């Protein structure tokens, strides 16, 4: 089975994330959307809200699982017998950052990282931009799936 882990904080999930996930469904038999827990990070949305946004979005997709984790992504992958880490690339800066993580993960494990370029229509979207739009009462619904609600 080709199982991939798509890790992130998803605070909140964006149309860019869903673009990568949806295209990844053609490549993998199963994708685990792994919501990382970082005690040092301040989130806009509580963990249960982020899980709910994603579960609602993919409730009719049997190839998607949503889980939370802390610690190393490669350890999570090993625990859930995932062969791949799926990551999206928006720009050259993303590539440089993700390349370093991918090399480190490969050094620590046998898990391959697969990069997908984001679609042109979503390449500018990031969770930090979405949070800024939300904080300033902008129309964030243009940037996120319809399951994301401002609380």
From TrEMBL:
Any one Gene Ontology cellular component term annotated for this protein = cytoplasm
Top EC group: transferase
User: InterPro entries from the entry?
Assistant: Cyt_trans-like, PPAT, Rossmann-like_a/b/a_fold
**Essential cofactor(s):** Mg(2+)
Where it sits in the cell: the answer is:
Cytoplasm
GO terms for molecular function, please? Answer: ATP binding; pantetheine-phosphate adenylyltransferase activity
The record's annotation in SUPFAM superfamilies points to: Nucleotidylyl transferase (SSF52374)
The reaction(s) catalysed by this protein are: (R)-4'-phosphopantetheine + ATP + H(+) = 3'-dephospho-CoA + diphosphate
The catalytic activity of this protein is classed by the Enzyme Commission as 2.7.7.3
Provide the GO biological process annotations. Answer: coenzyme A biosynthetic process
Q: What is its main location?
A: cytoplasm
List the residue(s) that the UniProt entry marks as the site Transition state stabilizer: 17
PANTHER family named among the record's database cross-references: PHOSPHOPANTETHEINE ADENYLYLTRANSFERASE
What family is reported? Belongs to the bacterial CoaD family.
Subunit and interaction comment: Homohexamer.
What does the UniProt function comment say about this protein? Reversibly transfers an adenylyl group from ATP to 4'-phosphopantetheine, yielding dephospho-CoA (dPCoA) and pyrophosphate.
What name goes with this protein?
Phosphopantetheine adenylyltransferase
Q: From which organism does this entry originate?
A: Nonlabens agnitus
Instruction: Give the gene that encodes this protein.
Output: coaD
């Amino acid at each position: 089975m080709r199982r991939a882990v798509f890790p992130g904080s998803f605070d909140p999930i964006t149309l860019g994330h869903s673009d990568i996930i949806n295209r990844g469904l053609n490549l993998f038999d199963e994708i685990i959307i792994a919501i990382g827990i970082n005690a040092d990070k301040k989130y806009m949305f509580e963990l249960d809200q982020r899980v709910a946004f994603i579960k609602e979005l993919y409730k009719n997709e049997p190839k998607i699982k949503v889980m939370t984790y802390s610690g190393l992504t490669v350890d999570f992958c090993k625990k859930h017998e995932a062969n791949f880490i799926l990551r999206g690339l928006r720009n050259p800066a993303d590539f440089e950052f993700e390349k370093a993580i991918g090399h480190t993960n490969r050094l620590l494990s046998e898990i391959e990282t697969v990069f997908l370029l984001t679609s042109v229509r979503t390449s500018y979207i990031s969770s930090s931009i979405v949070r800024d739009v939300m904080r300033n009462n902008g129309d964030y619904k243009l940037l996120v799936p319809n399951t994301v609600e401002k609380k």
